[in-house]
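Batch job 17 of 40 flagged for manual review because the log was empty.
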Amino acid sequence: MACFTVPLAEAVIVSAAKKVAKKAHCSEKTLDFIDKKVGWLEKMLYGGSALLAVEHLYHGEISVFPPFLTALNTPEEIPVMLHEMATSGVAMALLTTAVWGIIVGVSSVFERSKKQVPANDGGR
């Protein structure tokens, strides 16, 4: 019903934190990390939320007219919606962040190995 709102909220928080961090006096390496790798998390969260919103719209769980979430039409459905947000939404946000962390870790290993290997001169 509204599980996509949790990763969306995380995406908004990440965007705000990224903006604040870029204004802080950071090193070049930190700014590069913020621009590139935190940007990956933003894109994953916004993209996943958008796809879920489209899926929920397709299944009639949200509408383009207020109150937007169909669960808000009847008071009995509100606790069900909140439970879904607390379980599915939080799980999706945590899983997305964990996958991002793995991607950042793997890319850091590749970046370090690329710096340590001397350039090949073509066998000369």
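Reviewer: the log was empty due to a logging misconfiguration, but the result itself is present. Helices lie at 5-23, 28-58, 78-116. Unflagging and moving on to job 18.
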